[in-house]
C-alpha cells in the first residue's frame, strides 16, 4: 500500500516507516500539518497514518481532504474529531502489530474490490473495437473486413500466433492523457482542485460549451500547478480558440495518438 505516515517525533516516524517498508508498504513521511498537506497535494495514497497533535496544529486540518482511509493516533482518543475519512483511532502507545493488522485488512479489502471503471474516452474506443466483432466466436482473425474496421480506429494492429494460437493485438495510444488511471471529467462537471486530470469533450455539443470559460479554468489550473488535459476537442472548438487568439491557452489535447513508427515495431513486445 502507498502510505503517508505523519509524526513529529523523528525516531518514531522513521522507525515505524522502516518496519512498514519491511512489510512491503511504500511509505512517505511528514513531520507536521504543512508537510502532510504538501504530500497529499503531490500524490494519492491508499492510507494515511497520523499522530493527531502536531507542532503546527492537529491533523484535522488535512484529514478532511483525504480521499483514502485515515488511521489517527492520539494519547487522548476522545479529542479526535470524527470524519468520513477516519477509519480507526488508536491510543498511544500503539503496538506495531495492531497497526499492521489494520493495514493487512485494508490491503485485503482493496484487493477484493472490483477493478475501477475505464475512463469514459478509453471505454468509448473499447466499445467501438468490440462493435467490430459482433460475434467474436465466429470471427476469423484473418478476415480482412474485420481487420480493416479495427485498423480504422487508429493505433497499431497486428495478428500474432504465439504457440500456434492466433491472437489479435490492437494498441491505441492517447497522447492527451498519458496515464490510463488519470481522472477524467466532462466540461460541465466539477474539476479536481489538485493533481492532474483530463477534460473529455467527447459527445459534447460544441454549441452548448462555453469554450472560453473552459480555457480560463485551464489557465487558472496551470497557474495553481494543476495540470489539465483536453481530450477529443471538436474541430469547431479548436477553430474557435484559434480565432480568438487563444490557441496558446489550450492544454495538451488529442484523440487517438499516432501509429508506431516502423523502426519501433520490433520493440513492441509480443507478450
Description of the molecule:
The protein has 3 domains: 2-112, 3-Layer(aba) Sandwich (Rossmann fold), CATH 3.40.50; 120-169 and 261-267, no CATH class; 184-254. 32% of the residues lie in helices and 20% in strands. The protein is built from 8 helices and 13 strands. The strands form 4 sheets. Strands 2-1-3-6-7 form a 5-stranded parallel beta sheet, sandwiched between helices. The chain has a 4-stranded parallel beta sheet with strand order 10-11-12-13. A two-stranded antiparallel sheet has the order 4-5. The chain is flat.
Give the C-alpha Rg: 24 Å
Q: What is the H/E string? A: EHEHEEEHEEHHHEEEEHEHE
Report the portion of residues in β strands.
15-25%
Lateral strand order in the biggest sheet: 2-1-3-6-7
The name of the CATH superfamily of the largest domain reads: Response regulator
Largest sheet: 5 strands, parallel
Segments where pLDDT lies below 50 for 5+ residues?
174-178, 254-261, 263-271
CATH hierarchy class name of the largest domain: Alpha Beta
Estimated helix fraction: 25-40%
Number of strands: 13
Give the rounded overall mean pLDDT: 77
Described by the principal axes of the CA atoms, the overall outline is flat
CATH architecture of the largest domain: 3-Layer(aba) Sandwich
What would the CATH topology of the largest domain be? Rossmann fold
Amino acid at each position: 500500500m502507498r502510505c503517508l505516515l505523519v509524526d513529529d517525533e523523528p525516531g518514531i516516524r522513521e522507525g515505524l516507516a522502516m518496519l512498514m517498508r519491511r512489510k512491503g508498504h511504500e511509505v512517505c513521511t511528514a513531520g507536521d500539518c504543512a508537510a502532510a498537506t504538501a504530500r497529499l497535494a503531490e500524490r494519492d495514497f491508499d492510507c494515511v497514518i497520523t499522530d493527531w497533535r502536531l507542532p503546527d496544529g492537529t491533523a484535522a486540518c488535512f484529514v478532511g481532504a483525504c480521499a483514502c482511509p485515515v488511521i489517527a493516533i492520539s494519547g487522548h482518543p476522545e479529542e479526535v474529531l470524527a470524519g468520513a475519512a477516519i477509519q480507526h483511532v488508536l491510543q498511544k502507545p500503539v503496538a506495531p502489530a495492531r497497526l499492521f493488522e489494520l493495514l493487512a485488512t485494508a490491503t485485503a479489502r482493496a484487493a477484493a474490490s472490483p477493478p475501477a471503471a475505464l475512463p469514459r474516452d478509453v471505454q468509448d474506443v473499447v466499445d467501438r473495437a468490440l462493435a467490430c466483432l459482433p460475434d467474436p466466436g465466429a470471427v476469423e482473425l484473418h478476415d480482412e473486413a474485420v481487420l480493416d474496421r479495427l485498423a480504422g480506429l487508429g493505433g497499431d494492429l497486428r495478428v500474432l500466433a504465439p504457440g500456434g494460437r492466433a491472437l489479435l493485438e490492437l494498441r491505441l495510444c492517447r497522447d492527451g492523457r498519458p496515464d490510463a488511471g488519470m481522472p477524467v471529467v466532462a466540461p460541465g462537471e466539477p474539476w479536481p482542485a489538485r493533481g492532474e486530470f483530463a477534460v473529455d469533450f467527447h459527445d459534447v455539443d460544441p454549441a452548448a460549451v462555453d469554450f472560453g470559460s473552459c480555457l480560463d479554468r485551464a489557465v487558472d489550473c496551470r497557474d495553481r500547478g494543476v495540470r489539465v488535459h483536453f481530450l477529443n476537442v471538436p474541430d469547431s472548438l479548436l477553430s474557435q480558440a484559434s480565432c480568438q487568439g487563444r490557441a496558446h491557452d489550450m492544454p495538451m489535447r488529442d484523440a487517438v495518438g499516432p501509429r508506431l513508427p516502423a523502426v519501433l515495431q520490433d520493440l513492441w513486445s509480443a507478450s
